[in-house]
Design a protein that fits this description.
The protein is mostly helical. The chain contains 13 helices and no strands. Helix 2 crosses helix 3, helix 3 packs parallel to helix 7 and helix 3 crosses helix 11.
């Protein structure tokens, strides 16, 4: 008699479990697909819709939706669809770059405060100081002080881009730092960290090999939510007239330019407003899905 051979399924990896949990969150999956669609549109949209967003056609000014101009034109005859795509490229670039800066700063401060006790008190009081500052007046003051200097040195577009990215990144790292610090305080007391420390592993190697890989989940969640926060902040600054130059489209600048024509042409406010709202909503859903997928207590449900 031949003995029955039992086949066991190979063990699933952690990232497969994360992906399965993320797929089960419908809002996160739809948000991820929509955000990818936004990225592809702003990256490759000008190749498909090749109208120059700065091209002025006085004869077509204030026209409604048509085949030639699917979203209409503004008061100078510039194509709204081309300007929304160009504005999205700037707004998304600001959001992603500012997010990277804030996450790097927050992770650095959080790891230092959580792993080295002598830095914990001063760094957390420094973080509390930034949390207590009124952010919008601080943003306005920083932009008013450095905008003209950077524009004269780096150019009107590059100077303002670097200024807005730095301003948003410097004023939005605090939440990530507090979350990372809490996780580091918990992880550094685990057995594998204590064992590695007992054999003489240097602190820097210990942080890179054991601490950072185990705090990726809060960092990734903070990164996704940081994109939404940066896009909203840049749009608010541009709407107040303190962002990019008037001839350089962003979603916030398009809203600012459309407010004078709100009663006559309300659709001009609709398109950039929808772009901002849907992009931020999709990123927030992605953050919720990642938080649930990366939490082992929820992933097993």
């Amino acid at each position: 008699m031949t003995e029955a051979v039992e086949f066991t399924a190979p063990p699933s990896s952690q990232w497969n479990d994360v992906w399965h949990q993320f797929k089960s969150h419908r809002g996160a999956l739809v948000g991820c697909l929509f955000f990818v669609f936004i990225l592809l549109t702003v990256a490759f949209g000008p190749m498909v819709w090749s109208i120059d967003p700065q091209y002025i056609d006085i004869r077509a000014r204030n026209s409604g939706m048509s085949i030639a101009h699917p979203l209409g034109t503004d008061q100078l005859g510039r194509d709204t669809l081309a300007r929304v795509i160009a504005g999205g490229r700037t707004s998304v670039a600001v959001g992603v770059t500012a997010m990277l800066l804030s996450v790097l700063l927050g992770t650095f401060v959080g790891v230092l405060a959580g792993f080295f006790p002598k830095f914990d008190g001063p760094l957390m009081r420094f973080t509390d100081l930034f949390l207590a500052l009124p952010l919008l007046p601080l943003l306005l003051v920083m932009i008013m002080l450095f905008r003209d200097v950077l524009r004269s040195v780096l150019g009107p577009e590059s100077g303002v881009f670097i200024l807005i990215v730095c301003v948003i990144g410097i004023t939005s790292w605090m939440q990530a730092a507090r979350i990372v610090r809490g996780d580091v305080l918990s992880i550094k007391e685990r057995e594998f960290v204590l064992a590695s420390r007992s054999v003489g592993t240097p602190p820097v190697r210990l942080v890179i090999r054991h601490i950072l890989p185990n705090i990726l989940s809060p960092i990734m969640v903070s990164a996704t939510l940081g994109i939404a926060n940066a896009i909203i902040t840049e749009s608010a600054l541009s709407f107040l007239g303190l962002g990019f130059p008037s001839d350089f489209p962003t979603w916030g600048r398009l809203l600012y330019d459309s407010t004078d024509y709100l009663q006559q042409y309300p659709e001009r406010v609709l398109w950039p407003g929808l772009a901002i709202s849907l992009t931020v909503l999709s990123v927030n859903y992605m953050g919720d899905g990642l938080r649930d997928a990366l939490d082992p207590r929820i992933r097993g449900r």
